[in-house]
Structure formats: C-alpha cells, structure tokens
Write a structure and sequence with these properties.
The protein folds into 2 domains: about 5-90, Orthogonal Bundle (Rna Polymerase Sigma Factor, Chain: A); about 105-200, Arc Repressor Mutant, subunit A, CATH 1.10.10. The protein has 11 helices and no strands. By secondary structure, it is mainly alpha-helical. The protein has helices at about 5-10, 10-15, 20-40, 45-60, 70-90, 100, 120-125, 130-140, 145-155, 160-165, 170-200. It is about 70% helix and about 0% strand. It starts with a helix and ends with a helix.
Length: about 200
C-alpha cells in the first residue's frame, strides 16, 4: 500500500488515543517526506535522522492535543521545519537567524550575474554535478528563504500550506520565495558561466 493510501486511511481518533499501531502507520506514511525535508534543510544524513526521530517523538507526545485546525501533513511539516531551523540556529551565530537575514519584506536584491543557459546541452543542466551545485546553492540561502523554497518548490506545497507550516502570511511566502529563486539563480549563473567558458 502506498504512502498516499495510508495517509487517507489514518484514524485521527486512534492517533489521539495513543494507538501505537496507528502511530506506526503514520510513521510509514510520512517518514520519507519528513526525512527528505530534514536532509535538504541540513545536508547531513545523521542530522536528518536525528530530526526525523525528534519530530515523531514530538508528534506522538502532542497528538492528544492536536485539534485538527490544520491538516495532519501541514502540522508534521511545521514540526519538522521548526526542529530543523532550531538545529541550524544552535550551530550558527545569532546574526544568521531567520529574523535578521530577511531584512524588509518589500522587494529583494537583483542577481548580479545572470547567464543565458539556452546554449547548454540538457545533460549538462541535469548532470549530477549540476544537481550537487543546486544543493550547495540551497544551503547558502538564509534559513527562512531555504525553508520557503524547499516547501514550495521541492515538496510542492501550495502558498497557503507553506504559510500555515511557517506561520507567516501568504504575501511573506511569495516575497521570500522570489528572493530564494533569485539568489539561487545568481548562484547557478556563476556555475554555468564557468561551464560555458570551459566549453569555448
């Protein structure tokens, strides 16, 4: 049975009542996505495993009080993201925190360098090295921009769902996503500029 089938059949009342079998089904349904998000946030498999474990411990303890005002998946993403962000903040200086890296919400810096990628072959765009470079660019994003980008563009959540997960406005999601995309485009432009120079 697929994860989506499990999600549709999860018994919320049983979960709230502490049914361990139902909780095991919850883990089966959501752990791949929780782990993937944590890994993209942290870029370290062991750290992602720790976040996965901590997330489901918190979920188990909090389920009796889960009111269902948001969907179960949104709630799980919120806990995972919060755990990952707290982990990152413990490892970084205060000036790298989410609140201090965004600045104002109106507008964003334009990338300094934009490269036309049309002349690059498709296999160059999709190479393992290119994907690794994209991951490196994601890691360079400020934490809050990274969270928005991963939830919207990698996990495929809607603007509304992302806003619910991060507990910010939909307008803030759109602004932060624009900033993240522009910063990533600048990062990738540097990479592809080098590829084009080497191709000449």
């Amino acid at each position: 049975m697929s994860g989506s089938d499990l999600k549709s059949e999860l018994d919320l009342a049983a979960l709230r009542a502490g049914d361990r079998a139902e909780f095991a089904r919850l883990i089966d349904a959501y752990s791949p996505r929780v782990y993937r998000l944590a890994l993209k946030m942290l870029q370290n498999p062991q750290d992602a495993e720790d976040i996965l474990q901590e997330t489901f411990i918190k979920v188990y303890n909090a389920l009796p009080n889960f009111e269902g005002r948001s969907s179960l998946s949104t709630w799980l993403y919120r806990i995972t993201t919060n755990e990952a962000l707290m982990f990152l903040r413990r490892k970084r200086p205060p000036q790298d925190s989410m609140d201090e890296t965004f600045g104002g919400e109106d507008g964003y810096e334009q990338p300094r360098q934009i490269v036309d990628w049309c002349c690059l072959p498709e296999d160059e765009l999709m190479s393992e090295e290119a994907r690794a470079n994209l991951d490196a660019g994601i890691q360079k994003l400020p934490e809050g921009l990274r969270a928005v980008f991963l939830l919207r563009d990698i996990e495929g959540l809607s603007t509304r769902e992302t806003a619910e997960v991060l507990e910010i406005s939909e307008a803030a999601v759109k602004t932060r996503l624009s900033r993240a995309r522009f910063q990533l485009r600048e990062h990738l432009s540097t990479y592809y500029a080098e590829r084009l120079l080497n191709a000449d």
